[in-house]
Design a protein that fits this description.
This protein has 124 residues and is α+β, with helices and mostly antiparallel strands. The protein has one domain (2-121). Helices cover 19% and strands 39% of the residues.
Protein backbone atom coordinates (compact mmCIF):
# COMPACT_ATOMS: atom_id res chain seq x y z
CA UNK A 1 0.00 0.00 0.00
CA UNK A 2 2.77 2.45 0.92
CA UNK A 3 4.54 1.66 -2.34
CA UNK A 4 1.37 2.55 -4.27
CA UNK A 5 1.00 5.86 -2.41
CA UNK A 6 4.67 6.65 -3.03
CA UNK A 7 4.21 5.95 -6.74
CA UNK A 8 1.06 8.08 -6.99
CA UNK A 9 2.42 11.01 -4.99
CA UNK A 10 5.77 10.85 -6.77
CA UNK A 11 7.74 11.57 -3.61
CA UNK A 12 6.04 14.94 -3.02
CA UNK A 13 6.56 14.60 0.71
CA UNK A 14 10.34 14.31 0.41
CA UNK A 15 12.36 17.48 0.93
CA UNK A 16 15.54 16.28 -0.74
CA UNK A 17 17.15 18.05 -3.69
CA UNK A 18 16.94 14.78 -5.61
CA UNK A 19 14.11 12.35 -5.13
CA UNK A 20 14.95 8.78 -6.06
CA UNK A 21 13.45 8.21 -9.51
CA UNK A 22 11.13 5.43 -10.51
CA UNK A 23 12.75 2.50 -12.29
CA UNK A 24 12.16 2.80 -16.03
CA UNK A 25 11.96 -1.00 -16.28
CA UNK A 26 9.43 -1.90 -13.54
CA UNK A 27 8.31 1.54 -12.20
CA UNK A 28 9.25 0.84 -8.57
CA UNK A 29 10.92 3.65 -6.60
CA UNK A 30 14.70 3.25 -6.77
CA UNK A 31 17.14 3.73 -3.90
CA UNK A 32 20.04 6.17 -4.18
CA UNK A 33 23.30 4.38 -3.41
CA UNK A 34 26.62 5.80 -2.34
CA UNK A 35 27.42 9.43 -1.79
CA UNK A 36 26.66 12.04 -4.45
CA UNK A 37 29.55 13.28 -6.58
CA UNK A 38 29.88 16.98 -7.38
CA UNK A 39 30.76 18.28 -10.86
CA UNK A 40 31.05 21.68 -12.49
CA UNK A 41 29.08 22.08 -15.73
CA UNK A 42 29.94 24.26 -18.74
CA UNK A 43 26.58 26.05 -18.33
CA UNK A 44 25.91 29.54 -16.99
CA UNK A 45 22.72 30.72 -15.23
CA UNK A 46 19.71 30.14 -17.48
CA UNK A 47 21.65 28.53 -20.30
CA UNK A 48 19.84 25.43 -21.56
CA UNK A 49 21.39 22.32 -23.03
CA UNK A 50 20.00 19.07 -24.36
CA UNK A 51 20.82 16.92 -21.35
CA UNK A 52 22.32 13.61 -22.41
CA UNK A 53 24.96 11.24 -21.09
CA UNK A 54 27.34 12.52 -23.80
CA UNK A 55 26.91 16.10 -22.58
CA UNK A 56 27.88 15.12 -19.02
CA UNK A 57 30.82 12.97 -20.17
CA UNK A 58 32.17 15.80 -22.34
CA UNK A 59 31.58 18.77 -20.07
CA UNK A 60 31.65 17.74 -16.41
CA UNK A 61 34.67 18.60 -14.32
CA UNK A 62 34.95 17.04 -10.83
CA UNK A 63 35.07 19.49 -7.92
CA UNK A 64 35.42 18.88 -4.20
CA UNK A 65 33.06 21.47 -2.77
CA UNK A 66 30.46 24.16 -3.36
CA UNK A 67 33.06 26.89 -2.81
CA UNK A 68 34.61 25.92 -6.18
CA UNK A 69 31.48 26.91 -8.11
CA UNK A 70 31.89 30.35 -9.74
CA UNK A 71 28.96 32.74 -9.38
CA UNK A 72 26.38 32.06 -12.06
CA UNK A 73 27.79 28.73 -13.22
CA UNK A 74 25.79 25.52 -12.95
CA UNK A 75 27.01 22.40 -11.20
CA UNK A 76 25.51 18.95 -10.74
CA UNK A 77 25.37 16.14 -8.25
CA UNK A 78 25.51 12.60 -9.62
CA UNK A 79 24.17 9.56 -7.77
CA UNK A 80 23.91 5.89 -8.57
CA UNK A 81 20.45 4.40 -8.03
CA UNK A 82 19.31 0.80 -7.84
CA UNK A 83 15.86 -0.71 -8.13
CA UNK A 84 15.04 -2.94 -5.15
CA UNK A 85 12.46 -4.85 -7.19
CA UNK A 86 14.24 -5.76 -10.47
CA UNK A 87 17.87 -4.85 -9.68
CA UNK A 88 18.32 -2.40 -12.60
CA UNK A 89 20.95 0.28 -11.97
CA UNK A 90 20.52 3.92 -12.99
CA UNK A 91 22.46 7.16 -12.76
CA UNK A 92 20.79 10.39 -11.65
CA UNK A 93 22.37 13.76 -12.50
CA UNK A 94 20.72 16.82 -10.92
CA UNK A 95 21.88 20.20 -12.24
CA UNK A 96 21.63 23.18 -9.95
CA UNK A 97 22.54 26.83 -9.69
CA UNK A 98 23.90 28.10 -6.39
CA UNK A 99 21.85 31.16 -5.37
CA UNK A 100 22.66 32.80 -2.02
CA UNK A 101 23.97 29.49 -0.73
CA UNK A 102 20.88 27.51 -1.80
CA UNK A 103 20.90 24.88 -4.54
CA UNK A 104 18.19 25.74 -7.07
CA UNK A 105 17.41 22.74 -9.34
CA UNK A 106 17.89 23.46 -13.06
CA UNK A 107 17.65 20.13 -14.90
CA UNK A 108 17.78 16.39 -14.35
CA UNK A 109 18.94 13.33 -16.27
CA UNK A 110 18.16 9.71 -15.46
CA UNK A 111 19.96 7.17 -17.60
CA UNK A 112 21.22 3.58 -17.44
CA UNK A 113 24.20 3.13 -15.13
CA UNK A 114 26.61 2.07 -17.87
CA UNK A 115 26.14 5.36 -19.77
CA UNK A 116 27.43 7.62 -16.96
CA UNK A 117 29.63 5.21 -14.99
CA UNK A 118 32.81 6.60 -16.65
CA UNK A 119 31.98 9.92 -14.96
CA UNK A 120 32.23 8.33 -11.50
CA UNK A 121 35.49 6.64 -12.50
CA UNK A 122 37.03 10.13 -12.94
CA UNK A 123 36.51 10.77 -9.22
CA UNK A 124 38.50 7.73 -8.09
Amino acid sequence: MLELLDYLLGGLLQKELVKPPHCKACHARTTLTGKPRLFLLPLWQDQAEDLSAEFYLRGCRPISGLEQIPTGQQACRVWAAECPRCGERWMVAQNFLLVRGEEVPEGRLICPYRELSPLLARME
